[in-house]
Amino acid sequence: MKRKLNLLYVAAATAILLSACGTDTENENKDVKTNGTAGTTQEVETDTESVDDGTDPVPESQKVVLKDAILTESDEQDYSIYLLPTYTLTSEEPGRDSLYVEGEEEIFMRIETMKKEDGTFDYLVENMNEILKAASDGNAPVELTDEEKLPSGEDISTVKASKVQTETGTVTGIVFERGDMIVRLTLFDSPKEEHTENFVRMGETITTK
Where does this protein have compositionally biased stretches of type Polar residues (predicted)? Predict the structure, then answer.
């Protein structure tokens, strides 16, 4: 029951704050589409060779983690991502997808992408912290600074991340820039954070289609 209340607080805070930023709400009742459009299975090499499939290469340090990941395109947003087996990408509404753990739908990562414009990054970081605060019944988020646990790779810059603890798990927010795109990830994981590493590693492969 507590997890459901937390998710309701997060959803309410996100809807209010994003509507102030001009989010299109005309399609908010749109049926959820399940499963992104999958590409071919990507057998990621574990040596130093680059992946040559016409897309940005998987970050060198993550090739073992992302072995057998599948290149998948979002149905509603202009990006592709490498997905590990047992994870499913669904579109909630325009501008917002969820990456679920199969069989554990309460554990997921929300993905939002926006075009890079003046002020957008700072707004998303501020909004992210408000969402985390709402999810934890008012507790202040703790900033994450360990670079090894944050997204990295070609063209990724200006990464900001924070985390809060709740009674049922952890909620982590990450905002980063990649080229002309800004990506915001919101991770809902268990107290042991079994999936946080995988979420981050998949998240850092997000690139424009």
Answer: 34-43
